[in-house]
Write a structure and sequence with these properties.
This protein has 8 helices and no strands. By secondary structure, it is mostly helical. The chain has one domain. Helix 4 runs antiparallel to helix 6, helix 4 crosses helix 8 and helix 6 packs antiparallel against helix 7.
């Protein structure tokens, strides 16, 4: 299904993907790794060590986000930008389908969680991380802007829903 081939999505993709810089290429050729699922391994240790009472919230949010992303990828089966557009700058290898961005969804779950538990002076850092992951997914040519927008909504929505359900059942304060 080609749900993403409409003008503003393509134009915004090219605007971001073609804003080339040697420094940004270098930065995002490494930073994209911080948006991958294996970043959850050290984060689980951090959450377990310092925020153990919220471990269920963190794990539950990631599980809900992952299930939603995978279900939508399976249902829509949208191709990556490089498969449907000419002149795409691709910095990383891409697999699977494009819509929605799982890396962005996960980054926004992480941002929601850590912006609540970190001291006030550090609360902006998780959001900077999440927005850099989202921007970077388009910059490296892996996703359309719609993919990252919906991924961000899924990440924040998953966190909110899991938090509300845990509060409802008395597992989270």
């Amino acid at each position: 299904m080609e749900i993403e081939l409409f003008s503003w999505n393509i134009e915004l993709f090219y605007l971001i993907n073609h804003a080339r810089s040697m420094y940004l290429d270098y930065f995002f050729s490494y930073f994209y790794l911080l948006g991958k699922g294996y970043i959850l391994i050290p984060l689980l240790f951090v959450v377990y060590r310092f925020y153990r009472k919220r471990l269920l919230l963190f794990i539950g949010s990631v599980l809900v986000e992952t299930a939603l992303v995978q279900a939508l990828k399976w249902y829509f089966k949208t191709p990556r930008p490089v498969k449907v557009l000419p002149d795409v700058y691709l910095i990383e290898k891409v697999y699977h389908k494009s819509f929605p961005s799982g890396d962005t969804a996960m980054a926004f779950v992480i941002a929601c969680f850590f912006s609540e538990v970190l001291p006030r002076r550090w609360k902006l850092l998780p959001w900077i991380y999440a927005f850099l992951v989202a921007y970077g997914r388009v910059y490296v040519g892996a996703h359309f802007p719609l993919d990252v927008f919906v991924g961000a909504l899924i990440g924040m929505g998953s966190y909110w829903v899991v938090k509300k359900v845990l509060i409802l059942f008395g597992f989270h304060s």
